[in-house]
Design goal:
221 residues; mainly alpha; two-stranded antiparallel sheet
């Protein structure tokens, strides 16, 4: 997932686009061309600096650090589904996302209702990031990209709730939980037996519209 942006700079997840069959008819997306000002890959010392310091007005750390820059593009287009529709979570490299979605408690009707509402999703992100659940990991003070990488590597094969929360606290520092919330509710559902379904395993899933109302109701049982 290491790539090169339009300026020839190394970046991570920076050239994503929704799969063609998932795009709304006539929808045109635009990509930021002003990112990488503090790139982790050209300024590795930034891996040890507090992430929140790169989350600037009008330019989230996703953009400044050239890391998961396509989330900055989703924010630029005010459509978090831009991010969700650019992945196939069945890819083994994305298997950790199901754990993150479940552990953070986002596969619920409350979050499903946010699926097509950018502003409401960002407001929920702000609310969550301001809660002790995520503040306890120091995302707004000391958390670094190196801390996040260490957490991710230590959680492979472990998948603790604290590890999942810490991973998303990092996204608070990067500028928003919105991309991951959208990925969760677009990609997964709660099956009638309580297991987690994905995409067309879920009744009524549509590649353009995502999960229908009711997809998370079994979670209440």
């Amino acid at each position: 997932d290491m790539e090169v942006d339009e300026h020839g700079h190394v970046c991570y997840l920076c050239n994503l686009e929704p799969f063609p069959e998932r795009k709304e008819k006539g929808r045109v997306y635009h990509k930021r061309k002003d990112c990488g000002n503090h790139s982790l890959y050209e300024h590795p010392e930034n891996n040890w600096a507090p992430v929140h310091a790169f989350n600037l007005p009008g330019s989230p750390a996703y953009c400044e650090l050239n890391h998961e820059k396509s989330c900055a593009d989703a924010m630029y287009n005010q459509d978090f589904l831009f991010w969700a529709k650019s992945f196939d979570v069945r890819d083994p490299e994305r298997a950790y996302m199901k754990w993150a979605c479940v552990s953070n408690g986002w596969l619920t009707p409350e979050f499903l209702l946010l699926q097509h509402d950018y502003e409401a999703t960002q407001a929920k992100s702000d609310e969550l990031c301001a809660s002790e659940r995520y503040l306890q990991y120091g995302w707004n003070t000391t958390m670094t990209s190196w801390d996040a990488l260490r957490n991710y590597m230590s959680e492979l094969g472990n998948a603790s709730v604290a590890g999942a929360e810490r991973m998303e606290a990092y996204k608070c520092a990067m500028g928003s939980l919105g991309c991951d919330i959208a990925l969760c509710v677009y990609s997964y559902c709660i099956m009638s037996d309580g297991s987690i379904g994905v995409y067309d395993e879920c009744d009524g899933w549509d590649p353009v519209r995502g999960m229908p109302p009711g997809s998370m109701l079994a979670h209440r049982n």
